[in-house]
């Protein structure tokens, strides 16, 4: 007879697995982390007190049990096959034609295809008997893989027991273990902090983690998995891939987002293109889509060719990692003097874009990856971020590669530099040359002072000829000064003088942003302008006073204080103010009326477009956020407002309309 402890332990296991499923598969937690921890600790205490209640598939095994000595081998019941690839639309059309012939389809008949994402991870097979996880095995050579159950159990989105009543006697579930991009970046940051090896990409990180003997490592890493295929299956039948994957969801697995049943090749192409545009927004890496005959009967009929099912094909996207050679390393000087090393690459196409530069971030990064001029490297473009060097292919070294150091570069170029404690970047300290060009260029840019026609080349000319040496000098320029310069005609000189003069009266935040104070971007400048209304009080404000402002952190406050109290900074501002008159932010409810507020916009507004509404909120010192949470100050709802409005009501957050928003910002 089951004891009270056994009954409670069973109940706790059920509860914990239910909440794991809600959190890790459905992304819809029902209880707080601390409540979950309480249940977890209760179960662990019970298991410690009654060792006979300890089961291999207990949720307590998810934190990682004892290490294994080695990986045992597992023969897959049904071998794990591979996929044929398509790279162009023609390949897909040819595939469809093959299928039509094979399945003896008549002229007007289209084939039903199941289309889904091709996850770029590590393939995995899970065996469940009577609904219980027996083992997890890697693909290996397709016939025999390695037993990695100890690590698989730590992946919380994988059910330790299948959900539902009518479960198969024995089933092999196939899928892909991955690490989402954001978690991957965090993982590499942590690796760097500990001075551990960096992973080249999420797939390598997932594979490296699954091959660890100690499951505590896997438990500490953000693995998850998507499930899409079947090996052996006794005691359940399916009629289509769609039916199969739907059943996987019901059993408690994560299945791919965006999967769809298509009719014919043109539908499949539409899906391919749609996913291509979505690719950068996905939370994980994919390298293509997979197209499968949806009907399992037809798949069976299509058979196999060289260890791949003939009725499936992977349609790949261009890779976003490529190899090329670092021809040189250059150093960019930022507006605050930060020195950023940049690799000049032998041009190469990555994901359809020609790339000839990649950021090397800073000296630490160069040292950690041991990057040298002449190295053959992997470079990657993820999302729309600047291309970066992933790793060096050391096997390709010839011995002629040259190491690179920013201090040595500075010395060679006569640049004085510094590196403050705790900072990754070296900074140029002498404000001459390159740095002044960058600062004036920044001052003139569209989002700052917006001086039309004052680009890099002209700034260089003006500095070189000593016509200007500071921001204020721009306002002292005379027509005759410009006419002395090469390439300047009467008309172009007049235009430049006019566009400089046009900025003599401008919004305060533009001047602040234009000064190029470290950590003070456009948004912070707007916050400061709204708060202070003029520059003078900022010259006197203490670090503490700055940090009292919502959204201004200690780092920004320190930088502001440093700038305004430095002799150069204070003088720069005072001289500039002789020529430029700041227009204070709008008064009458507008300025700072929403200072510190977090606002969510939803639905369609009667007169304002989405970007107008955003500007209205931001100009009044508020912040626009895309999701409703407890931190939301209020929600502005228009017609057709959907789930955000529901969420606001659920959380008891104030909801207003466009008219009320206008009132609050004084419009
Ligand atoms: S079906 C017969 N569907 O791609 C093999 N595979 O290049 C059945 N993969 O080994 C594979 N996402 O590891 C299938 N949605 C998906 C997939 C997928 C990723 C992997 C899988 C396979 C490899 C083949």
Would you mind describing this structure in some detail?
The chain is built from 26 helices and 28 strands. It has 667 residues and is α+β, with helices and mostly antiparallel strands. The protein has 6 domains: 62 residues, Helix Hairpins (Orthogonal Bundle); 222 residues, DNA ligase/mRNA capping enzyme (D-amino Acid Aminotransferase, Chain A, domain 1, 2-Layer Sandwich), CATH 3.30.470.30; 103 residues, OB fold (Dihydrolipoamide Acetyltransferase, E2P) (Beta Barrel); 71 residues, 5' to 3' exonuclease, C-terminal subdomain (DNA polymerase, domain 1, Orthogonal Bundle), CATH 1.10.150; 78 residues, 5' to 3' exonuclease, C-terminal subdomain (DNA polymerase, domain 1, Orthogonal Bundle), CATH 1.10.150.20; 67 residues, BRCT domain (Rossmann fold, 3-Layer(aba) Sandwich). The strands form 8 sheets. Strands 14, 15, 16, 18, 19, 21 and 22 form a 7-stranded antiparallel beta sheet that branches. A 5-stranded mixed beta sheet has the order 2-13-10-3-9. Strands 5-4-7-8 form a 4-stranded antiparallel beta sheet. The radius of gyration is 31 Å and the shape is globular. The model has no long low-confidence stretch (mean pLDDT 90). The site of 2-(butylsulfanyl)adenosine (IVH) has 16 residues, from β3, β8 and β13.
Structural class: alpha+beta
- Using the alpha-carbon principal axes, give the shape: globular
In helices, the fraction of residues equals: 25-40%
What would the average pLDDT be, to the nearest integer?
Answer: 90
Q: Can you tell me the residue ranges where pLDDT is under 50 for at least 5 consecutive residues? A: none
Characterize the main sheet: 7 strands, antiparallel
CATH superfamily placement of the largest domain: DNA ligase/mRNA capping enzyme
First-residue to last-residue Cα separation: 74 Å
Bound molecules: 2-(butylsulfanyl)adenosine
Number of contiguous helices: 26
Number of strands: 28
How many separate domains? Answer: 6
CATH class of the largest domain: Alpha Beta
What proportion of the residues form beta strands (DSSP E)? 15-25%
CATH topology of the largest domain: D-amino Acid Aminotransferase, Chain A, domain 1
Q: What is the radius of gyration?
A: 31 Å
Can you tell me the CATH architecture of the largest domain? 2-Layer Sandwich
């Amino acid at each position: 007879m089951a004891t009270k402890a056994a009954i409670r332990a069973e109940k706790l296991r059920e509860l914990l697995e239910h909440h794991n499923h809600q959190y890790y598969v459905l992304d819809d937690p029902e209880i707080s982390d601390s409540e979950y921890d309480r249940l977890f600790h209760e179960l662990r205490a019970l298991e410690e007190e009654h060792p006979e209640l300890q089961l291999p598939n207990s949720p307590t095994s998810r934190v990682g049990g004892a290490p294994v000595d080695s990986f045992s081998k597992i023969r897959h019941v049904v071998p794990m096959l591979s996929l044929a690839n398509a790279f162009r639309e023609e390949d897909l059309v040819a595939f469809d034609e093959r299928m039509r012939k094979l399945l003896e389809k008549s002229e007007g008949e289209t084939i039903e295809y199941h289309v889904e994402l091709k996850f770029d991870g590590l393939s995995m097979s899970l065996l469940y008997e009577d609904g219980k996880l027996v083992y997890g095995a890697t693909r290996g050579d397709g016939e025999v893989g390695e037993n990695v159950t100890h690590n698989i159990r730590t992946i919380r989105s994988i059910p330790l027991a299948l959900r539902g009543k009518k479960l198969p006697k024995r089933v092999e579930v196939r899928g892909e273990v991955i690490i989402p991009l954001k978690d991957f970046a965090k993982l590499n940051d942590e690796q760097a902090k500990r001075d551990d090896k960096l992973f080249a990409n999420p797939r390598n990180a997932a594979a490296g983690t699954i091959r660890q003997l100690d499951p505590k490592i896997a438990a500490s890493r953000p693995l998850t998995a998507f499930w899409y295929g079947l090996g052996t299956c006794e005691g359940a039948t399916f009629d289509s891939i769609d039916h199969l994957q739907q059943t996987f969801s019901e059993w408690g697995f994560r299945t791919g987002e965006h999967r769809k049943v298509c009719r014919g090749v043109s539908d499949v192409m539409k899906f391919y293109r749609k996913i291509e545009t979505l690719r950068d927004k996905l939370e994980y890496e994919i390298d293509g889509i997979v197209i499968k005959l949806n009907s399992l009967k037809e798949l069976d009929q299509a058979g196999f060719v060289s260890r791949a099912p003939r009725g499936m094909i992977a349609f790949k996207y261009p890779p976003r990692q490529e190899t090329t050679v670092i021809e040189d390393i250059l150093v960019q000087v930022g507006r605050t003097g930060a020195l950023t090393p940049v690799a000049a690459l032998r041009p190469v196409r990555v994901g359809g874009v020609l790339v000839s530069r990649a950021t090397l971030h800073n000296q630490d990064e160069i040292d950690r990856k041991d990057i040298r001029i002449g190295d053959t490297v992997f470079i990657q473009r993820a999302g729309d971020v600047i291309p970066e060097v992933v790793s060096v292919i050391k096997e390709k070294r010839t011995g002629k590669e040259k190491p690179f150091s920013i201090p040595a570069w500075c010395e060679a170029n006569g640049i004085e530099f510094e590196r403050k404690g705790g900072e990754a970047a070296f900074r140029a300290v002498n404000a001459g040359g390159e740095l002044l060009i960058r600062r004036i260029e920044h001052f003139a840019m569209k989002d700052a002072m917006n001086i039309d026609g004052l680009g890099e080349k002209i700034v260089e000319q003006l500095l070189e000829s000593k016509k200007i040496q500071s921001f204020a000098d721009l306002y002292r320029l005379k027509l005759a000064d410009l006419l002395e310069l090469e390439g300047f005609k009467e008309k172009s000189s007049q235009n430049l003088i006019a566009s400089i003069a046009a900025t003599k009266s401008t919004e305060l935040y533009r001047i602040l942003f234009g000064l190029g104070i470290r950590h003070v971007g456009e948004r912070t400048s707007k916050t400061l302008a709204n708060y202070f209304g003029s520059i003078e009080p900022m010259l006197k404000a203490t670090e503490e006073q700055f940090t009292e402002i919502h959204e201004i952190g200690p780092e920004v406050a320190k930088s502001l204080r440093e700038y305004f109290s430095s002799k150069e900074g204070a003088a720069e501002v005072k001289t500039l103010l002789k020529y430029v008159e700041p227009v204070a932010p709008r008064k009458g409810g507008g300025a700072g009326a929403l200072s510190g507020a977090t606002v969510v916009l939803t639905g369609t507004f009667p007169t304002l477009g989405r970007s107008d509404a955003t500007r209205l909120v931001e100009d009044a010192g508020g912040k626009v956020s895309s999701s409703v949470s407890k931190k939301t100050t209020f929600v502005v709802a228009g017609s057709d407002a959907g789930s955000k409005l529901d969420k606001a009501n659920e959380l008891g957050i104030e909801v207003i309309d466009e008219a009320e928003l206008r009132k609050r910002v004084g419009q």
